[in-house]
Amino acid sequence: xxxxxxxxxxxxxxxxxxxxxxxxxxxxxxxxxxxxxxxxxxxxxxxxxxxxxxxxxxxxxxxxxxxxxxxxxxxxxxxxxxxxxxxxxxxxxxxxxxxxxxxxxxxxxxxxxxxxxxxxxxxxxxxxxxxxxxxxxxxxxxxxxxxxxxxxxxxxxxxxxxxxxxxxxxxxxxxxxxxxxxxxxxxxxxxxxxxxxxxxxxxxxxxxxxxxxxxxxxxxxxxxxxxxxxxxxxxxxxxxxxxx
Length: 244
Ligand code: MN
Hints:
By secondary structure, the protein is α/β, with parallel strands linked by helices. The chain has one domain: Stationary-phase Survival Protein Sure Homolog, Chain: A (3-Layer(aba) Sandwich). The chain has helices at residues 14-23, 72-82, 107-117, 136-150, 211-216, 232-241, and strands spanning 2-6, 28-34, 53-55, 64-68, 88-95, 121-127, 158-162, 169-172, 180-188, 194-202, 219-225. Strand 3 (53-55) and strand 4 form a beta hairpin. Helix 1 packs across helix 4 (136-150) and helix 2 (72-82) packs parallel to helix 3 (107-117). The protein is globular, with a radius of gyration of 19 Å.
C-alpha cells in the first residue's frame, strides 16, 4: 500500500513524525508537508506563484520526506503528482482537535479533502494538546487500530478522526454543528499598537453521538464526511414550490 502523509502543522511537527512511524507498518510511506505551519488555512491553494518541493533534512527513520512552500492542499496536489497513485492520504496528527465547526477552518482536514477530490481516500487525524506535547506513545495503538479499521475499504472516502488524550475505545460519530463564537480578542503589542487575536469557542454543550461528545468522553471519534454540501431538503422544496 502506498501511503502519502501531509499535515498543516509543518514538516517539523512531532505529530507528523508519529504518524509516519505508525503508517510505515501498513505500507510504503512518503511525506509531503508544508515548510512552515499552515494551521487554519482551510482548503487554500497557491495559484499566484510557483511552488518548490525540497527533500527534507529531517530524519523520518528511512522514510522519504519533502517540504513544500505551500498549503496543506498544495502538498497533496504536488505529492500525488510526483508520487503517482497513492492508495491513501493521511493528514496529521494535528496538534489540536478538529471537531465540529473547526472542520471549516482545518488545514489538516483540507489535505484529506484534497485527496478525495483527486479520487483517493483521505483521513485526517488530530489530538488536543495539554501542556507540552501529546503523548504519541500512548496514542500509538489507537492510531494503529483506527487505521486498521479504515484502510480495509479501498473506496475514496473522507474521514475525520480525533483522538482524546487518553482513549478507551473507538466510536463512529457525526459532526457537531452547534452555535459557536468566532471570537475576536483585542489586545496591544509591546509598542502599544492595537492587535487582535482570532479564536473559535463552542457556545453550546456537545450533543450525544457527535465528534465533540466522543472526545469529551474519552472515545476516538471517527466521522465519515461527504464533499457535497447541497441542502437536499431545501433543494427539493425550492424545486417543487418556487418554479423558476
Ligand atoms: Mn494544525
